[in-house]
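Quick one, C-alpha cells below. Sequence please?
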C-alpha cells in the first residue's frame, strides 16, 4: 500500500474514499479534497462497488505524452545550449524556436500552449532579456543623467500656481 506509485489524482481519490468510509458526508469530503460534489458522487459509487482499490485503479485521463523521459532530457540539453548553435539568428529562445527544435529532434509538432507547458514541467520559466546596448558605458550614462538631463527636463510653469 505504498503511496509512491500513486498520482496526485489517485491520492486525492483515496483520501476522499477514506473520509467517506469514516462517515463524513459527501459535501464535506468534496470540500476537503477540493473537487466538485458530482465528482465525489462518482468516486463514492466506485468505492461502494470495489472499495479503495477501485479508486486507486481509475485510469488517468488525457492524451499520452509524445515525448518520453529520454527525449525530454535531450530537449533540455538542447535548450541549455545557445539558440545560435541551432541555427537561429539571435540568442533568444522563443516558443516557436523551441517548437522547431522539438520537431527537428523528435519529429513531433506541438502548439505553443503545449510547448509552454512542457517547458514549465521541465523547470524553465519565462525570462525577459535586458534591453541594453552591449556597448553601453555606465559612467557616461550616469554623467549625462546628472548634468545634461536636468537641463532638458520641463520645469513647472509659473501660471500653474
Amino acid at each position: 500500500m505504498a503511496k509512491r506509485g500513486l498520482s496526485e489524482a489517485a491520492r486525492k481519490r483515496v483520501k476522499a474514499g477514506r473520509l467517506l468510509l469514516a462517515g463524513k458526508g459527501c459535501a464535506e469530503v468534496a470540500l476537503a479534497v477540493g473537487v466538485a460534489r458530482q465528482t465525489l458522487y462518482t468516486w463514492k459509487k466506485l468505492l461502494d462497488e470495489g472499495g479503495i482499490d477501485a479508486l486507486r485503479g481509475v485510469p488517468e485521463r488525457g492524451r499520452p505524452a509524445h515525448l518520453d523521459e529520454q527525449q525530454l532530457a535531450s530537449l533540455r540539453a538542447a535548450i541549455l545550449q545557445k539558440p545560435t548553435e541551432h541555427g537561429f539568428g539571435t540568442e533568444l529562445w522563443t516558443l516557436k524556436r523551441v517548437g522547431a527544435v522539438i520537431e527537428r529532434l523528435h519529429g513531433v509538432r506541438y502548439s505553443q500552449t503545449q510547448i509552454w507547458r512542457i517547458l514549465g514541467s521541465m523547470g524553465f520559466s519565462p525570462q525577459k532579456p535586458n534591453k541594453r546596448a552591449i556597448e553601453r558605458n555606465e559612467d557616461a550614462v550616469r554623467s549625462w543623467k546628472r548634468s545634461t538631463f536636468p537641463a532638458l527636463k520641463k520645469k513647472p510653469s509659473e501660471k500653474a500656481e
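The radius of gyration is 28 Å. The chain has a mean pLDDT of 86.
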